[in-house]
Amino acid sequence: MFGAWHDWDTARRQLAVLAPEVSAQRLGEAVAFAEEAHGDQKRPAGEPYVEHLLEVVEILVSGAGFRDEDLLVAAILHDVVEDTDRTAGEVSERFGPRVEELVGWVTKPHPEAHEDPAEVRDRYLLSLRSAPPEVLLLKLADRFSNVQRLDTHPRPEKRRSYYRETCRHLVPLTAGVPWFEAAFEEWREFYRHLEDGAPAATA
Predict the structure, then answer these.
(1) pLDDT tens digits, the chain, 203 residues: what are they?
(2) One of 35, 47, 70, 83 is an active-site residue; which one?
(3) Helices within the chain (DSSP H only)
(4) What is the residue-wise DSSP string for 57-104?
(5) Residue limits of the HD/PDEase domain (predicted)?
């Protein structure tokens, strides 16, 4: 379970030990940018949104052992274009074109008026199969943060659909990335009761 890096001060101290080569100033600027952009936005279980962003960084560094600075900056910013009024151009101007590219890959497109949102989402997830390796790392860390406490989601049916979607689209992307492969396999076993046809939990 991850979630110890619940604020920037804690994350900064841990990064100084685990990834001293990463610029704390640059990551701190990304955190400030994301906090301003997301404002009072909350996660489904009610926690401040920034906790999810820092958790993605924690998974990449403390769990999977990655130190790519642009990847960590993109982890902090991965939802700002999708979920706020910030633009890809702003991300590029402030944090560079590589960060913007990483964020762009994991930004789900908004469906047009004539499009089925479920089909748009499915196409986006399928497109990840051709994504560069660092994009896959970012998306896997993001999804692992989203699902590691799946039982806290307030809607039971969403738990089931998110489990199915993760197993269908994200688990196959872990092939060749040993840490994520093991982590998602353990997660899949823990939540196997959410599979289609599995008996409903009694507690």
Answers:
(1) 898 999 999 999 999 999 999 999 999 999 999 999 999 999 888 889 999 999 999 999 999 999 999 999 999 999 999 999 999 999 999 999 999 999 999 999 988 888 898 899 999 999 999 999 999 999 999 999 999 989 888 888 889 999 999 999 999 999 999 999 999 999 999 999 998 755 443 32
(2) 83
(3) 8-18, 24-38, 49-58, 69-77, 80-83, 88-95, 97-105, 117-127, 133-147, 156-165, 178-190
(4) HHIIIIIS----HHHHHHHHHTTHHHHSS--HHHHHHHH-HHHHHHHH
(5) 45-156
- Residue pair 99/74 in contact (Cβ under 8 Å)? The answer is yes
Give catalytic status of residue 83 as yes or no: yes
CA separation for the pair 11, 16 (Å, rounded): 9
* 35 among known catalytic residues: no
- Exactly one of 35, 51, 70, 82 is catalytic; name it: 82
